[in-house]
Automatic annotation (TrEMBL):
UniProt KW Chaperone keyword: no
GO cellular component, as recorded: DNA-directed RNA polymerase complex
Source taxonomy: Bacteria, Bacillati, Bacillota, Bacilli, Bacillales
Bias type Basic and acidic residues, positions: 21-39
Name of the protein described by the UniProt record: DNA-directed RNA polymerase subunit beta
UniProt keyword terms in alphabetical order: DNA-directed RNA polymerase, Membrane, Transcription, Transmembrane, Transmembrane helix
Region of interest called Disordered, as start-end residue ranges on this chain: 1-46
Sequence intervals crossing the membrane: 70-96
The species this protein was found in: Alteribacillus iranensis
Length: 120
């Protein structure tokens, strides 16, 4: 018989049983207190994280250096807009129109279109 089996099978004294029961109740109380603290701490941690984010938003330096300035971004967007409109006109006129894609860029073609719309 091993030591573990021997100690498990022997009857415990009343004093030992009382000590075991006391330690069990103490552990249960500690776990209950830890759960209360953890549940209270979670909401506290959420607020702390929220306040940390808010502080971080307003504490950033106001003089940030942009990689591309705003005026250059606006020029890039404007250039892309003009290029896309021109490409759409060329493709649309060549597929739907007479077939000469560069004809849409001539001023005479736009005058004809204006007179057609106005009914002249």
């Amino acid at each position: 018989m091993t030591y573990k089996e021997d100690t498990a099978n022997r009857p415990a004294s009343q004093n030992e049983e009382n000590q075991i029961e006391e330690t069990r109740t103490q552990r249960r109380k500690q776990k209950a207190e830890e759960k209360k603290e953890a549940s209270a701490g979670k909401s506290g941690k959420k607020w702390a994280r929220l306040w940390a984010r808010i502080r971080a938003m307003f504490s950033r330096s106001k003089t940030s250096v942009r990689m591309v300035p705003i005026w250059a971004r606006l020029l890039i967007v404007l250039a892309l807009l003009i290029i896309s409109i021109t490409a759409g006109l060329l493709v649309g006129y060549s597929l739907v129109g007479e077939g000469d894609s560069l004809g849409v860029l001539s001023l005479e073609r736009w005058r004809e279109l204006y007179h057609f719309i106005q009914g002249e």
